Amino acid sequence: MQQSKANEAIPVCELWQKSRLYVTDQFLQPPVVLRVDDSIIGTLGNFSASTGKAKSKKTFNICVIVASALTNGTVLNYRSDFPHAKRKVLYVDTEQSPFHCQRVLKRILSLADLSTEKQPDALEFLCLRGSDPKTRLSIIEYAIYNIPHLGLVIIDGIRDLVYDINSPSESTSLITKLMQWTDERQIHIHTVLHLNKGDDNTRGHLGTELNNKAETVLQVTKDDMDKDISSVASMYIRDRDFEPFAFRINEDSLPELIENYQPQQPLKKKAFDYKEVSEAKHQEALEAVFSIGESLSYASLIERLRLCYTDAGYAFGVSKAKQLKQFLTNKRMVIQSEDKQYRYNPNFYY
């Protein structure tokens, strides 16, 4: 088994000398291996990530990336260009059962127009659901340092490589591993991490570290108006941004591109308009308002208006209830007497 250089006992003085950088040094630009249209998503020696909320079809998006890498061509909007000596792909799934992992594997091969009856030499698939975080990490590291011609590594479920997603030390250690692996093996790693349920932030301290260090972070989002559609956009990107694109899952359970996708904005729920309520509905609601007594104080009236109009099918807040009260008194549907109490006028003219 090969070992990473970080595991060797290298004297600090030697590490210092190796870390020094001079203005006269010459470096080659990292090979670009993954693009969306003309935007650079991934280069050798770096890592990127996909994120999204549960069931946003992140894994479907990853399948497209892997299919693109296997063909070294374009699948949907992803375009791969791996060097000849970097054409091997390692796919690691930490979440799903072997049955579901195999479905993902077959989906990738179908997208790449490869046979689903034979394992391709260019793809190795690991199912690590049954292992603990430390063991998963060791298996992945062993594979990375022992698979020849490796160019792309997918880690679908990076959260499962730590015990505590909010641990600063664990998060820093894991992200350092990603940087070390990509640098020493000159590969590209693409990881997957969920977004928080309540907002669009990547989960935990690990998510923060991932955002800070990743070359690109893609966000996969379900369309608000059509749950069968998912869009892909850049959350963070070092290169120029790309136009978001979308895909749907076809009858063969494969993602297919939606041409000229334009996200539809959800229709805003129309606010309650008391002027559009019919006379009969006003009468029904007001009879219920004053069913507890012939006269009501201002505070009781406001509360009863909200309650009884809601029962009649019109929900609104206190501010709207005060506007409704003014409307009702202007129409003399509700009358205020000298004692500041409010009474219902059944003989109102609407």
Description:
The structure is a single chain. The chain is of the alpha/beta class. It folds into 2 domains: 30-258, P-loop containing nucleotide triphosphate hydrolases (Rossmann fold), CATH 3.40.50; 274-344, Arc Repressor Mutant, subunit A. The protein contains 9 helices and 16 strands. The chain has helices at residues 12-19, 58-71, 98-111, 133-146, 168-185, 204-213, 279-289, 298-311, 318-330, and strands spanning 32-36, 39-43, 46-52, 74-75, 78-80, 88-93, 123-127, 150-156, 188-194, 216-222, 229-237, 245-249, 255-258, 295-296, 334-336, 342-344. The strands form 3 sheets. It has a 9-stranded mixed sheet, with helices on both faces. A 4-stranded antiparallel sheet has the order 2-1-5-4. The radius of gyration is 30 Å and the shape is elongated.
Summarize the helices and strands and which ones pair or pack.
Blueprint: H1 12-19, E1 32-36, E2 39-43, E3 46-52, H2 58-71, E4 74-75, E5 78-80, E6 88-93, H3 98-111, E7 123-127, H4 133-146, E8 150-156, H5 168-185, E9 188-194, H6 204-213, E10 216-222, E11 229-237, E12 245-249, E13 255-258, H7 279-289, E14 295-296, H8 298-311, H9 318-330, E15 334-336, E16 342-344
Parallel strand pairs: 3-9, 3-10, 6-7, 6-8, 8-9
Antiparallel strand pairs: 1-2, 1-5, 4-5, 10-11, 11-12, 12-13, 14-16, 15-16
| First-to-last CA distance | 88 Å
CATH architecture of the largest domain: 3-Layer(aba) Sandwich
Strand content: 15-25%
The structure class reads: alpha/beta
Helicity, as a percent range: 25-40%
Query: In what order do the strands lie side by side in the largest sheet?
Result: 7-6-8-9-3-10-11-12-13
Query: Could you tell me the mean pLDDT?
Result: 89
**Measured on Cα atoms, how large is the radius of gyration?**
30 Å
What's the CATH H-level homologous superfamily of the largest domain?
A: P-loop containing nucleotide triphosphate hydrolases
Number of strands: 16
Number of helices: 9
CATH fold category name of the largest domain: Rossmann fold
CATH class identity of the largest domain: Alpha Beta
Task: Please provide the ordered H/E string of secondary-structure elements.
Answer: HEEEHEEEHEHEHEHEEEEHEHHEE
Uncertain spans: none
Number of domains: 2
